[in-house]
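Re: [help] complex structure
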Amino acid sequence: MQALYAQLLVGLINGSFYALLSLGLAVIFGMLNIINFAHGALYMMGAFCAYFLLSLTGLGYWWALLVAPIIVGIFGMVLERTMLQWLAGLDHLYGLLLTFGLALIIQGVFQNYFGSSGLPYAIPDELKGGMNLGFMYLPIYRGWVVVFSLVVCLSTWFLIEKTRLGAYLRAATENPTLVRAFGINVPRMITLTYGLGVGLAALAGVLSAPINQVRPLMGENVIIVVFAVVVIGGMGSIMGSIITGFALGVIEGLTKYFYPEASNTVVFVLMVLVLLVKPTGLTGRAA
Amino acid sequence: MTALTDDTLPVTPRAMRDEMIVFAIMAVLLAVVPFTDIYPFFVMQALCFALLACAFNLLIGYGGLLSFGHAMFLGTAGYVSGHALKVWGLPPELGIIAGTAASAALAVITGVIAIRRQGIYFAMITLALSQLLYFIYLQVPFTHGEDGIQGIPQGKMLGFIDLSKPTILYYVVLAGFLAGFLLIFRTINSPFGEVLKAIRENEPRAISLGYKTDQYKLLAYILSGTLAGLAGALKVFVAQNASLTDVEVGMSGLIVLMTLVGGLGTIFGPVVGAFIIIAMQQYLAGYGQWVTVIQGVVFVSCVLLFRRGLVGEIAHLLKRSL
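Output below.
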């Protein structure tokens, strides 16, 4: 039973990353109509940012949690201003191709300087050790990642669904021209949205740095799994991406316990099943 | 909204004639390669990728479906052909058929799943399916995991065509490429191809005209996957190995890049693109990971600066269909 709970926890952690990443993808897709293939590379940049903050400036984990998403978010906004904005009005697929190229560039540059091996990043002192819950031993850092991710996901949901800013955002997704006519600066909102989505990816990167090590290709496989998550959940609903992300992480964890050979493929197999039964995805509307 | 292939010119008798002339020039140029100083293995490799890119282009350029998982057909055909030749000891012609048939079967299965969604979702689904296959090939024993199938024998085709002689192998690969190319060319200019283009331009209208668009898309997908498989089976004789590299996401991206550089929806673009990208890989082989960075830069500049691709730009200047 201990092993089962341990795998469930691993599943919840991976689910947190899937949720943060697919949430960012959904927010970006809503505003920019772009599937951000560079999301995995930007997640990796978040982890590297935390690593550099510590090794170059001595700023620790807590600072990294705040500063890394801002730095990577600004980097994302520069990408949006200089490149992505020129794709407005073109076929959605161009966005996919452009961001795929960006991912190749970013990952290639990091691989040149850091190879493919991982750099260690220590768990902060405050979150070291573990707790005995009676039925299992819970490493505090892992519990922290799950709770913190959940809080961030729900705050993002609240921001978009319940605040005035979010209302503007949703309106601009539906009809940008009309929202612009009301005097709202839609292009700036698009840039900020991209920055927000990218920042969420970087935040996931910082959270994963102490668990998965900091590697140039750490985002390469994750992004494909997240694509499958997005196909399963549909990109229509924010809460949908959060729930699907966590749920698939848990399912993956359970598979690791019951049938480890399939743990790499279970998300993709589920995607196939969902497509056969409900092609629009679980929460998606017909496209 | 601007579609990916808005600039494609309509098929006219003049366009058909132009294309036949260019095809004849291309065939003659390729046929004289063994009499020049050009390294035949480079051209053979490029021809395999050219066929692969043409097959990919049939789907995106004429069906409007961007597959981000075409490497799965290349890899599957490679593994099955390689296994058939090395372990079962089948003659080359049967090895090629086995590999191509395996890819065709894979195309039927994945096609039924993938064509349920369009556009961006289709791309993500094909990507996820090819990743699923990657993990399967990583685990099943016959692919030999990270090592791949090495030292695949070339053998004698039909009992007398000795494929271990580079010049003979070259002409066999060239024949395979030209046959595949002509099949695609014929498909594009057939009534079937016209319906495909109609679906790409406006699917609801095609449905209202009574076409079962899903069947057309599925058929195009199967044809594309099968020809990509033929390319993979031919590549086994050139490289004499089959490895995980051919199933990776990076390979699928490379196929997209070749077609993009040459020109999406142009007939000769994928061929030109394949030669450019393979040549680039050869010349830059010593620069390690910078090759990836350069590929990324080419991707970005193609999308931002010349979306028509090389052949597409030339065709646009000449106001011809190429």
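The radius of gyration of chain A is 19 Å.
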